[in-house]
Amino acid sequence: MLFPDYRPRRLRQNDAFRRMIRETRLSVDDLILPLFAIAGKGVKNPIDSMPGHFQLSIDNLVKTSKKACKLGIPAVMLFGIPDKKDPLATSAYAKDGIVQKATSALKDKIPDLNVITDVCLCQYTDHGHCGFVDGQIIDNDATLDLLARTALSHAKAGADMVAPSDMMDGRVAEIRNILDENDLSNIPIMSYAAKYCSAFYGPFRDAADSAPKFGDRRTYQMDPANSLEAIREVTLDIEEGADIIMVKPALPYLDIVCRIREEIDLPLAAYNVSGEYAMIKAADKMGWIDGKKVMMESLTAIKRAGADMILTYFAIEAAEELRA
Ligand code: PBG
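# PBG complex -> structure
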């Protein structure tokens, strides 16, 4: 049927029609809030490039998480900013590390909120790389044990799910093994499976103090030009035991989200990263865009592309908007 018989505008003429034919609905259930934990008490250091976000000491982390939970957000993703860094990232897997302490505090105070922990070494190594460094080389296999120990320590502290973001080969299997061996076979793994080497992580690296001191992450994170490779990466992680697959970043990679959605039947997450957040906040501040509307449109677009869940620094604002 063609114009003038078919007129698409017939079903757009009022809000009720538009609601009736809406294909994608963003829900608070889709949102995961990333948070940054730091030592101390009463600490709330603003992150300049991420307005509204802070490095939070555990007391304040609990406060913000309570607010998120009240709004119906099902989970937070925890990142730690440790007191000390060293070549072996020892504070990443220390029993009294910042993420371990924050996790047990959150589970103690807000048992209904799921705590997902980011498993990586870059915040904890003195060189800022995500793996063990030998000369100029990031040694894949030497890193696996450190990652596995980190994931185990998070799970032992009470994490509901662990999320490896390092992009070393074989880490999902290694983490699955160590969890299973320690009677933690019920802890799911959310794998940052297709994680690109992206300049959109800039603000995060300021927030987490995790920029590499030499070189870049191109030998382990994916080339932004590749899409078939994303399928290979995702397939590998599923074979190794991943329960949830993630694509990261989100907005510049919606084609990847869409493609992976068609390829796999596991739950799919997309990470709306720090740079995506910062750009919207900056343009809003300049008065160049309506930040709230652009936020809701962006999150809806990520869901429309096929993501089941969205990690986003907008989680609280979006949840408030959805409730309004
Ligand atoms: C750790 C990690 C990074 C992000 C999540 N986990 C930084 C990186 O890979 O350099 C980025 C998150 C964001 O930009 O919001 N490897």
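# post-check
The mean pLDDT is 97.
Residues 25-323 form a domain with the TIM Barrel fold (CATH 3.20.20.70).
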